[in-house]
Amino acid sequence: MAEQVSQPRNWSSRSIGAAWQHQFFYLLLRLGGRRAAYLFLYLVVGYYMVLRPDQRAKCAPYVRHRFPAAGAWMRFIHSYCMSLGLGRALLDRALVGILGPERLRIDVDQREELLGLVAEGRGLVLMTAHLGSWQAALARVDFLRRPVYMLMHREAGDIDRHYYEHQGEESPFRMIDPTGFLGGAVEMLTALKQGDIVSVMGDRMLGADRNSIAVEFLGGEVHFPYSAYKLASASGAPIAVLFNHKTGPDSYRIELVRVIRVPREKGRQGEEFRPYVAEFVRALEEYVQAHPYQFFNFFDLWNKEG
Amino acid sequence: MSAELKQKLKQVLIAELNLEDITPEEIADDAPLFGDGLGLDSLDAVELVVLIQKHFGVEIKDMEEGRPALQSINSLAAFIEAKHSQ
To answer: So where does this one cross the membrane (chain A) (predicted)?
Structure first.
C-alpha cells in the first residue's frame, strides 16, 4: 500500500570517523597515494568490525537480507567487505579531489542514449542510489552539457568532504536542500522545465519527504520515495537510472540500467507510481546481486518503524 | 483581488488535489497552504505548479516567484492576477 509514513530518521550523513582521522587519511593519500591509504583502511575497518559491535550492527540488516543463508562468521566477513567497500569509495572520492580527476578512470556506458534523453528537452531525472562512488561518478556526466541539480542535505557537524572541496573548488552541482522550502520540490520542477538535470537518490527518504511506497526488496518490504516519479510525471522528463560500481583499483563504471518514463498527469496518489518505483527497485536489486559490496546502506531499510 | 478567482482556485485545489471533507468556504483566503494550514505537502506543491499553469495559464518559473506565491489563496490569486496583467 502507498502511504504517507512519518519516518523518524535513523540514519545520519555524518561520518563515524573523527576529524583527525579524516585528515590522517587525506595526508596518506597525498604522501603515499591510494595504496598507502588502502593499506591503513584494512586495519581501520578491521578495528571497527572487531572492536565496535555498534558499527558492525549497522551492516547487519543489509547483510542479513543480501546473504540470508550466511552464518555468523560469513556475516562478519560480508560486513567487513561492505565496510571496506565504503572506505575505498570514500578514499577514491578524496583521491579525485586531492590528486586530480585523472587518478580515477570512470567509464560511462550508453553515453549516446543519455545524450539522446537530454536532447528530448524535457529535463532529465538522474536517479542514483548509494552505490559505488556516486559523487565522483556524477562528476563525469558533464558531457551532457546541462546544469546538474543535486538533492542533498548536509548535516551540521558533517566533516566528510566532497571531492571538489579538497581543492577549495566550487561545487560542480547546484545543490537543492531537501529540508528547504517544500522539500526543494518546486526548485526541482523548475530545473526540469528548463531542460536541466536533477539528480536524486531513489533508495532513501530525504528531508521532509513523507511520500513513500512499500516495495519488496531483497526479500522484505522497504519504503521507497516516489516524489521523483511525480516530478517526472509533472514535467514529462524521463528518468535515467544510473548506477556505478568499482571495476578495479583505480576504475569505476557508470551504467544506465533503466530508462523509466512516467506518463503525464498521473495524479497524486502513491499507488499510481507503484509500477515505476518497482521498476527502479528491480534494477537496484539486480545491481546489488551483481555487486553486493558496492551498496552502502548502513541502516535498517526493512524496519517499518524507520 | 477578484473573489471569483479565489473561489475558482479553491475549487481547483479541492477537485484536483482530492481534498476530501472540505468545501471552498472552509478554506480561509489567508490560511497557509502548506504545513499547519491546508496541510498540503511538497508533492502537492508540484501538482499545484502544474495546475496553475493548466487552469490559469500562468507559469511559476523559479523559486523567487514560487516562494511568495505559494503561501495562501490570497498570494496565489495576487500572483495570477499580476501575471495576467503583464
So the answer is: 35-51
